[in-house]
Each structure stands twice: as C-alpha cells, then as structure tokens.
C-alpha cells in the first residue's frame, strides 16, 4: 500500500480510488462527507484480486444470489395529494428539459429540493393506503423514505389507523435502532419506516418481513441496493418484493433518469471486477 499510494493513511486511498461529496441529510445539523462514487477502478481491481499477493478472494455475486430466494421490483404511479401551489410548481417544471432538471438536482438546487420534499408529502395519503393493503393481507412492511417530514407523516397516519409502527432515521440513537430491529424481527412491528440512507449496512431485518414499499427513492442504485439488502440478504428464506411508488411528473422522471445512469456506471464497475477475477 505504501509503495502504491505513497503512504498508509486512509486519506491517500480515498483520494486515489473514491469520489466524495458533502451531503446535508434532513434533520442533521451539519453536512456529512460521504463516498458517492469511485475512480481508477481497473487499477484497484487488479491490486485487490490479482498479483502474487492478492488482498481478497472474489466470489461472484451470482454464486451468492443462487443460494438466496429471488428479489422482484415493481414501479408504478400513484396519485399525488397535491395542493394548488404544488400543482402550479409541477406545471412550471414541465417547461424545463429533463437534462436541465437532472443538472439542477445533482447540484442540489434548493428550490428543487423543496419541491421534491413536497412531492414526498403529497405521496403520503396514497402510500398509506398501499401499506395498509399489505398489512391487512398479513404482511409486515419495510417502508423507505428520505425526508424526516415524510417519515413522521407516514408514522402518524399508520398509527392513526391502529397499526404498530417504528421509525429508524438519522435522529435515532444506536440503542433505539437496535430496539426497533429486535421488535421488527420478532414480528411485533407491522410497519418499519426507515430513512433510506440511515438504514445503513448493519441492520439485519430479514426475519421480520418480505415486503418493501419505497415512498421516496434515492437516485443512487448502490444506496437502494443497501436498503433492499436489509431484507434480501443471506439468511432470508422467502421471496422479497419491492414496490417503488412514483408519480407522473417531470421531476420524478429526471430522478429516474439519474438513477438509470448511475446504475449503468455501477454495472460497469462490477464488470471490471469480473474481468480481473
């Protein structure tokens, strides 16, 4: 490592092989620097998997997935409970090109961030009905959202209908997350509402349910994959199904286009690893 990077500090590795950005999460006081991409992947894959002293033994994901039940996804539009102001904002967005909206979203344009949050709030009413249908069919549901305002609205609405609900987001302590995880895996929670990025990689929720409903989607496929892996992971014995709730507006279309672009980049990185293994 010292010969390759000029030192053994993690910062040197990050500078060489990762792309970082600062992100402001809802409810957090300060922005958080996080890895959002990678670079020099062919060199890194060669270092990790090849040479006289490889650092890792690569197991193809196909080998792992072959021993697991399937994951299926479905995406469909729901009706927004939009007020006159949001409807006017969405009509204005129709005048913009998808390319312009993509650029503004990735630049975290404050006006679009506000509209995105309001779209999430406008999805709550229809989303609760979707979740209700699944609970009443005997399924506990893992719910994914982004904004704390949307999470709180879902929590209040579901509890108001008499369902047991828990929340895991950036406001939760580690002890609170562990308690929610335990209740869910015991089957005591009918709806576990998670902030997608805050769900992290440490939560093992595969024993509590097999149904996922995504109310607000992140445009990063890797972040979404991590969220799905809370249920669809080693040890899961049943088929896991994901319903992604979208709405028929240009902003959601732009978000979807960003997601598909990043998914292609994600596949390209995986292909590099397969080629050198």
Overall CATH class of the largest domain? Alpha Beta
Mean pLDDT: 83
Sketch the topology as an H/E string, one letter per element: HHEEHHEHHHEHEHEHEHEH
Radius of gyration based on Cα positions: 20 Å
Structural class category: alpha/beta
CATH architecture of the largest domain: 3-Layer(aba) Sandwich
Query: In total, how many beta strands?
Result: 8
Domain count: the total is 2
Helix fraction, binned, reads 40-55%
Low-pLDDT stretches? 269-277
**Largest sheet: spatial strand order:** 3-8-7-4-6-5
Largest sheet: 6 strands, parallel
Number of helices: 12
Beta-strand proportion: 15-25%
Coarse morphology: globular
CATH fold-level assignment of the largest domain:
Rossmann fold
- Going by CATH, the homologous superfamily of the largest domain would be P-loop containing nucleotide triphosphate hydrolases
Q: What is the terminal-to-terminal distance?
A: 20 Å
Task: Give a structural overview.
- This protein has two domains: 71 residues, no CATH class; 190 residues, P-loop containing nucleotide triphosphate hydrolases (Rossmann fold).
- Helices cover 49% and strands 16% of the residues.
- It contains twelve helices and eight strands.
- The strands form two sheets. The chain has a six-stranded parallel sheet, with helices on both faces. The chain has a two-stranded antiparallel sheet with strand order 1-2.
- β1 and β2 form a beta hairpin.
- The C terminus is likely disordered.
